[in-house]
Amino acid sequence: MFGTESSLSMFLNTLTPKFYVALTGTSSLISGLILIFEWWYFRKYGTSFIEQVSVSHLRPLLGGVDNSSPTNSSSSSNGEADSNRQSVSECKVWRNPLNLFRGAEYNRYTWVTGREPLTYYDMNLSAQDHQTFFTCDSDHLRPPDAIMQKAWRERNPQARISAAHEALELEDCATAYILLAEEEATTIVEAEKLFKQALKSGEGCYRRSQQLQHHGTQYEAQHRRDTNVLVYIKRRLAMCSRKLGRTREAVKMMRDLMKEFPLLSMFNIHENLLESLLELQSYADVQAVLAKYDDISLPKSATICYTAALLKARAVSDKFSPEAASRRGLSTAEMNAVEAIHRAVEFNPHVPKYLLEMKSLILPPEHILKRGDSEAIAYAFFHLQHWKRVEGALNLLHCTWEGTFRMIPYPLEKGHLFYPYPICTETADRELLPMFHEVSVYPKKELPFFILFTAGLCSFTAMLALLTHQFPELMGVFAKAFLSTLFAPLNFIMEKVESVLPSSLWHQLTRI
After folding, report:
1. Could you report how far apart the first and last alpha carbons of the chain are, in Å?
2. Which of 5, 172, 211, 388 would suit a FRET pair with 326, their CA atoms being 20 to 30 Å apart?
3. pLDDT of amino acid 495
4. Rounded-to-integer distance, Cα 54 and Cα 238, Å
5. Secondary structure (3-state) at 361
6. Calpha distance 356→359 (Å, rounded)
7. What is the mean pLDDT of residues 7-14?
8. 156 pLDDT more than 80
9. Which pLDDT does position 117 carry in this prediction?
10. Residue 161 banded pLDDT, cuts 50, 70, 90
11. For residues 502 and 512, what is the distance between their CA atoms, to the nearest angstrom?
């Protein structure tokens, strides 16, 4: 049952260097095989096999509760996943539905900080949008429109403003008022006055072109341009009302605009409406808008996904406690909220750090990349206050958002509920965001502990095998010293037992 120190020393002395080489080599081989299997399993399933077995089989035996395992998605989520699973195309840049005013907001930031909040690439995209929406082939027939057609192509802001004034000297021109409201007005109040003047001129042009739109392709293009101008003016007037605190008025203007031009979904006016309704805390109206626009057939956005998550979190966040949830498990309402947060985070993983104020906000750009850092900034810039207003919502987000990346299959580009995450987002965001901002990148999935452990064990035992093969005598001395040190506490216990027990009983135990 017990062994003496002399028998242990005798046993160690009988071990040859070949034994140590075989021992370390076998250990290295076994740990290497485990490492290869663990790596293959992680690449295929995104988790460690040893960790999964431990959580699934050992933790319940120890009385633990597993709340991190992914649940089955609803049928609607599965349908969305199937419909959205497609090959990744090049990144498409969208106009920011909540873009600020250059003169009243972006320029003010430059005056205060000395930094340029907009990149040349972003402003160049805006110039292209203006030429697309505010010009047509028949502009040469009307001198003010011809001047404005050149003004939208000007790179110098002062040249554009001068051209707008020149066009207004000839005749009332809605697009000239738009340019002045966007770039020359230094306050929202001034911008609103100019947009109201633009509205009068724009409505007159729209009515005239509406009567002539069927007289030829030229008139159709002119009517399409006048429609774009009118929608743009009304939308910006609604945004002015929202910024000036007249939120209910802004909501009415947005609803009227969506009813009058239901087919112009490219402007994403519903995102402006959602933000205004959240400011009014009209959560039932917000849910009604989401029911219409959070559809499988419609493109998603951070505003859609995170607003849906906020509404579901609102139902449980005030009483949510991670400690209580770990003991009793998640309720149905809490599970729905967590799934909604996971869905939102998978769509745009950059938003939580801004909502949780782990990363500093900057002014949003005029264009955004969906699922990119630019969209996250644009969303958080306007919606952070709405999350703060719902008690416990940010706490629930903080406790659950990182679990998303344990649910997504590996590699990360595979996706789970949405189509694969585009790999070009970082490059596109770098072009859209100013240089002083550190662009967020898609969170990398960390290697599980057991892969790192087996890799270290394999490397260590392989090194021991090599050293033992090259320096057998020296490594034999080290091995004996290590084993002697390892068994020193056992020898100490044996000596104590021998000194306490009678010699006859001790001899009988040692013979056993």
Report:
1. 6
2. 388
3. 65
4. 57
5. coil
6. 8
7. 56
8. yes
9. 92
10. very high
11. 16
The answer to whether 42 and 451 have CB atoms below 8 angstroms apart is: yes
Q: Kindly report, residue by residue over 218-268, the tens digit of the pLDDT.
A: 778 888 888 888 999 999 999 999 999 999 999 999 999 888 887 665 568
Pinpoint the alpha helices (H) of 315-446. 322-328, 332-347, 351-355, 373-389, 393-400, 404-407, 425-432
Q: What pLDDT does residue 50 have?
A: 67
C-alpha–C-alpha distance, residues 290 and 424, integer Å: 29
Task: Give which of 231, 197, 227, 198 is closest to 210, Cα–Cα.
Answer: 227
Classify 437 as helix, strand or coil. Answer: coil
Upper half-sphere CA count for residue 340 (Cβ side, 13 Å): 25
Q: What percent of the chain has pLDDT over 70?
A: 71
Q: Provide DSSP, 290-343.
A: HHHHS-TTSPP-HHHHHHHHHHHHHTTGGG--HHHHHHH---HHHHHHHHHHHH
Q: How far is Cα 141 from Cα 121, in angstroms, rounded to an integer?
A: 31
Q: Between the CA of residue 382 and those of 128, 277, 304, 351, 388, what are the distances in Å?
A: 26, 12, 13, 12, 12
Largest CA distance in the chain: 123
Q: What is the DSSP string of 137-188?
A: GGGGGSHHHHHHHHHTT-SSHHHHHHHHHHHHHHS--HHHHHHHHHHT-SSH
| Cα–Cα distances in angstroms (integers) from residue 431 to residues 366, 369, 475, in the given order | 12, 10, 58
- In whole numbers, what is the pLDDT of the chain averaged over residues? 78
**Ordered DSSP codes for 73-129:** PPHHHHHHHHHH-----PPPEEE-TT---IIIIIHHHHHHHS---S-HHHHHHHHHH
Entry field: residues in the chain: 512
- Report the chain's C-alpha Rg in angstroms: 34
Check the CA dihedral 77-82-87-93 and report its sign. negative
Phi-psi region of 421 (alpha: psi -120 to 50; beta: other; left: phi over 0): beta
**Which 3 state secondary structure label does DSSP give 131?**
helix
Q: What is the pLDDT of residues 187-231, one digit of tens each?
A: 999 999 999 999 998 888 888 877 876 777 777 888 888 888 899
Other Cβ atoms less than 10 A from the Cβ of 140: the count is: 10
In the chain, count of helices (H) and strands (E)?
27, 2
Q: Are 461 and 27 in contact (CB under 8 A)?
A: yes
Q: pLDDT tens for residues 408-450?
A: 665 545 556 677 777 778 888 888 999 989 888 877 655 566 6
pLDDT band for position 300 (50/70/90)?
confident
